């Protein structure tokens, strides 16, 4: 019933139904995942995170759950937690393209944020220090994204990211 409400774009009703199902089956992995999906659709990342943590407790070797946890943390700009989650997914499956790509993108995006913040700094010494911090993040992204490129040579997002990264690291 919850998926019918989701398709009808009534996530609040879907959440109500899935909460009732969860009362009867508190550790059912499929119900927990449905709860995660509903909360993500509602934009409630924190509640989705709580449901994901419970789903992982029920199925700790599910690479996709760790990947989704990483994306939620990424959206919340909790980069250290996102990095841990992507790495856990890659520990389970070292060839998991999506987790690998998002990990590389995470470093790239952190570098971009540092560059943007540096552009607001008036102190030359602080600016240069921030530029070096950004470059360090970019250098972490390159080998990961190069692996992604080898895995899926036609992936345009990977090629575009590398195209922007190479000049930034010299």
Write up this protein.
There is one protein chain. With about 170 residues, the chain is mainly α. About 80% of the residues lie in helices and about 0% in strands. It is built from 9 helices and no strands. It is elongated, with a radius of gyration of 19 Å. The mean pLDDT is about 85.
Q: What is this structure, in a nutshell?
A:
The chain has 170 residues and is mostly helical. It has nine helices and no strands. Helix 3 packs antiparallel against helix 4.
Keywords:
single chain, 0% strand, mainly alpha, 170 residues
DSSP helix fraction: over 70%
- How far apart the termini lie comes to 55 Å
**Kindly state the mean pLDDT as a whole number?**
87
Radius of gyration: 19 Å
Structural class assignment: mainly alpha
Number of strands: 0
Can you write the helix and strand succession as a string?
HHHHHHHHH
Shape descriptor reads elongated
Task: List the total number of helices.
Answer: 9
Task: Name the poorly predicted regions.
Answer: none
Beta-strand content: under 5%
What's the story with the biggest beta sheet?
none
Present the secondary structure layout.
Layout: H1 2-7, H2 11-24, H3 29-42, H4 45-58, H5 63-75, H6 79-92, H7 97-118, H8 124-151, H9 156-169
């Amino acid at each position: 019933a919850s998926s019918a409400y989701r398709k009808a774009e009534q996530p609040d009703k879907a959440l109500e139904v899935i909460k009732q199902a969860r009362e009867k089956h508190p550790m059912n992995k499929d119900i927990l995942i449905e709860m995660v999906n509903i909360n993500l659709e509602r934009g409630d990342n924190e509640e989705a995170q709580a449901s994901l943590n419970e789903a992982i407790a029920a199925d700790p070797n599910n690479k996709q759950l760790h990947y989704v946890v990483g994306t939620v943390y990424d959206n919340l700009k909790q980069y250290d937690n996102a990095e841990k989650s992507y790495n856990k997914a890659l520990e389970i499956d070292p060839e998991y393209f999506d987790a690998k790509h998002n990990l590389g993108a995470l470093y790239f995006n952190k570098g971009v944020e540092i560059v943007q913040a540096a552009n607001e700094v008036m102190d030359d010494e602080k600016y240069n220090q921030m530029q070096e911090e950004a470059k360090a993040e970019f250098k972490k992204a390159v080998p990961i994204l190069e692996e992604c490129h080898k895995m899926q040579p036609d992936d345009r997002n990977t090629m575009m990211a590398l195209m922007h990264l190479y000049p930034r690291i010299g």
